[in-house]
Amino acid sequence: MAASLVFRLHDRGPDLVREVLLERGWEEYDEDKREEEDWNLYWRGSAFKNSDYLNLLPWQRLNHHPKTTGITRKDFLARNLRRMRATLGSSLYDFSPTAFILPNDYTRFLPEYNKLRLTRGASVYWICKPVDLSRGRGIFIFEDIKDLVYDSSVIVQRYISDPLLISGYKFDLRIYVCVKTFHPLTVYIHQEGLVRFATEKYNLSSLKNLYAHLTNTSINKFGPFYKTQKERVGQGCKWTMSKFRHFLHSQDINENLLWQRINNIVILTLLTIASSVPSCPNCVELFGFDILLDVNFKPWLLEVNYSPALTLDCQADITVKKRLIGDMIDLMSYTLVDSLRVKAFQREAHKKSCFHANHSPDALMPVLPKFKETKFKKERKKSQFIHTQTLPMLKMTGHIQKINQRHSVKSSFLANNQRQLPPVALNKIQEAKGRIITEPHTDKTINLTLGPHSRTNKSVVNRQTGPAPAPWTRVNGSLCQSEVTNCEEPETEAENELSAETDFSSIIHEIPKRELGFRCSAAPWKLRDVKGTNRTKGISFDGNTALNKHVPPLRVGDFIRTFPFNTATLKASQHELDIKVIKRELHKLTGQLAKSEKKRSREEEEVKKDKDGEEDFDSLLWGPKDPPLISQCLKNNL
Ligand code: ADP
C-alpha cells in the first residue's frame, strides 16, 4: 500500500509548490494534526537551521543544501570566483565581470578604475549592488567615481555595457539548476527557463533609468511600459526559453556552443563550493543562475539566486515554473522508503534521532526524535489512539509473515534507513512486535508513491537516492558565513537576515563515509536519438561495473544531467573532487563544440579517436529542445 507523502511549507508558501504537490496527491502538513516530524519534504525560502539538518530522518528531504551561500551571496560569489581564477587560470574563469567588494577592496578598485579610465578610448561603466539585497534593490550604475556613494557593504562590478538586445531591449536568461547532491557532484539544468526583459530601450546616456538597465521582473512589472506591445518583445517582460530558441534560430549562431558555455559556467561556479558543502543526501536545491549575453553572444554570470522566485506573474511563468517544480519533485526520487514515515509514526518504541552516532547493535534501529508535545499528541495520549491504529494497519497490509529473528528485523531497518529500495520481489516495509510484514513490490506501488502526475517513469528515477544514516561528513576549511543571500522569495527575506547562525564547523560529527552514489535503473531507460528512434546502445545502466552503479539518469522530466557528463568527470567526482580533470574535460568538450562546424582537422580526428575509445557513458547536450547525445552531436558535426 502506498501512503500519501506529506509536505511542509514554511510560512505557508510558495503557493506553486503547494499546488503541484496537492495535484500529485500529496498532503499538506498540519501541525495541529501531525507530529513534529511527520513529513517527507520541508520547503523553505530561507535557510534551515543546523538542527534541521542534524535531526533529519530517512524519509525526510529539505530543499536546501547547507552552506550554499558561498555562491548565492554576491560578495561570497565574487570572492570564490576570484580564488578559483587565481588557482585555475583566468581563461577558464573568465565568465564573471571583474568585481570588487567595498569598502574592503577600495584600494584595489581605485587603481583599476583609473587604469581603465586612462587607457580605454570608450567609456567604462560600473554597477554597484548591495551584497545582501535582491530583486534589484539598491542597485545603481555609474561612470564617474564621484557618483559611487554607499553606506553598506556593496560589490562594484564592471557593467556589461554592450549587451545583446532584442528590438533594442536588454534581457538576461534565468537558468534553473538543480543540485541533486554535492557528494558526488550531480547537477541538472532545466531545459525551460525564462528570458527577462527590461521594459524601456537600452540607452547608455540615461544610466539612472532602471527600466532600461535592469531586467528584474520585480522592477519592470511596475514600469510604465510593462503592458505595452514592445516590438518583437511583445507585452510584459518575459519569454520562455523555447521562444528564445526560436529567436536564436533566426540568427546565425552556433547555438550548441552557447548552451555548452552556459553549462560550463554553471559547473565551474558550483565547483567553487562543492568541496566545502557538507554531504547531505536528503537535500536537493534549486538555484537560479542569471546569465547576460553580450553582443558577441558571450555569456556572463551576473549572480546565483537562492530560492529563485516561484511567483506566477504571467503566462511564461506558468508554463515554465509549474513544470519545473513537478520535475524537481520527480528528481527527488521518492520511493517506498519514504512511506516508512507512516509506519514509523505508528510505533511508539522509537524515541530518538536515527542519526545519533551510537555504535551498539541496538542503536542500529532507526528511531524517532523526542517529539514536542503537539496538540495532536496531547489528544492522542488521552484516547490511547496509537494502539488501536496499529492493528487495522497490519490487517490492511495483506501478506503477513512471522519472522522471529530479531537480527533480520534490525537489518531490514538499517537497509531502510539507508534509503535502499527493498528487493524487487518482496519489500520488507514494516516491523511490529517481532514480525515483518512483507508486501509485493509492484509497479503500481511505485507509481502511486511517485504520484499520479509524475512525468517520470519509475525506471527513470533513481531507485536509490543515497541518503546516509547521518547527514554530515566533515568538511575541511568550512566557510563561516551569514545566510544573507540573493533570495528572491519576498516573504522570507527578514528571516534570512536573522538566521545567521549557520557555522557548521563546530558541530559536524565525524561519520564513516558510505556509498552515496546512484543506483542504476532496473531497465535501461530509452531515449530518443537525433533521428527520433529509441536508443539504448551505449547507455551503461546495467550495473556491471562499480562505476556504472553511480551513473545518474540522463534526464528527469525536462531536467538534463549536465554533470557528470562523461566517464572522466564521473570518476573525477566520486571521491575527492579532481578539479583539474574536470577543467580539462570541460575545455575539451567546449573546444570540440566550438570547432564542430569547421572542417575536420587532424587534431580533431585525434580527439575523436580518444573519445570513441573511452566513452560508454552518454550525456545529452543541454539546451536544445530535443537534446541529442553529446557523442552523437560531435560525430555529426566533426
Ligand atoms: P539582484 O539580486 O538585485 O537581482 P543582480 O546582480 O541580478 O541583482 O542585478 C540585477 C540586474 O541588473 C540584472 O538582472 C541585470 O539586468 C543587471 N546587471 C547586474 N549586473 C550587471 C552587469 N555586471 N552588467 C550588466 N547588467 C547587470
Describe the structure.
A hairpin with a 5-residue loop joins strand 14 and strand 15 (299-306). Residues 348-374, 383-452, 454-484 and 491-544 have low confidence and may be disordered. The strands form five sheets. Strands 9, 10, 11, 12, 13, 14, 15, 21 and 22 form a nine-stranded antiparallel β-sheet that branches. The chain is globular. Helix 1 crosses helix 10, helix 9 (255-274) runs antiparallel to helix 18 and helix 17 (567-574) runs antiparallel to helix 18. The N and C termini lie far apart (52 Å). The protein has 638 residues and is an alpha+beta fold. It has 20 helices and 22 strands. It binds adenosine-5'-diphosphate. Residues 97, 127, 129, 133-136, 139, 157, 159-160, 172, 214-216, 290, 292, 302-303, 486 line the site of adenosine-5'-diphosphate (ADP). GO terms for molecular function: ATP binding; tubulin binding; tubulin-glutamic acid ligase activity. Pfam families: TTL.
Would you summarize the structure shown here?
With 638 residues, the protein is of the alpha+beta class. 31% of the residues lie in helices and 16% in strands.
